[in-house]
Amino acid sequence: xxxxxxxxxxxxxxxxxxxxxxxxxxxxxxxxxxxxxxxxxxxxxxxxxxxxxxxxxxxxxxxxxxxxxxxxxxxxxxxxxxxxxxxxxxxxxxxxxxxxxxxxxxxxxxxxxxxxxxxxxxxxxxxxxxxxxxxxxxxxxxxxxxxxxxxxxxxxxxxxxxxxxxxxxxxxxxxxxxxxxxxxxxxxxxxxxxxx
Length: 196
Ligand SMILES: [Zn+2]
Known about the structure:
Elements: H1 5-19, E1 22-28, E2 34-39, H2 41-44, H3 48-62, E3 69-73, H4 78-88, E4 92-98, E5 101-104, E6 115-123, H5 127-138, E7 142-151, E8 163-168, E9 173-174, H6 180-183
Helix pairs in contact: 3-4
The structure holds zinc ion.
Zinc ion binds at residues 26, 34, 176, 179, 181-182, 188.
């Protein structure tokens, strides 16, 4: 039943173009790095049918890990994490930042030994997923794998667990002091939740 990887990549590429989610310009990513390209996954996921398909594809990739639940860092991971959990038939929970640190709130619980897969929309440095995973292990759960719609890590997974993504996107990014666009005099835009 597994959908062919190339077919997924082609279909996802089409979705990115159609939704306008892939933007060009000068951006400061949530990791702090600067880039000439940005993926606004909120636009990719605004069509629920599209979101559901992405969740089903990610669930196919992650199914072998036999997760007890999916955990996602708010806000970016919530939609795709929920769709993935729905496709796997397991509970979904999210971590959120409160006073600077990532936490499990709203009465969500993880039991000791629970097999948790952390799902995010886009992984660049993997910081948010790693923080969510740290919350899981602090609750005694077991972090078994990571998943994302888009892998922007440029080939080197930042995780100590297996990492599955639907598409590897090679969009160069730089530390701000090495950014050629800043050097050219333009100012980086912070897209993120501001929706710019
Ligand atoms: Zn820059």
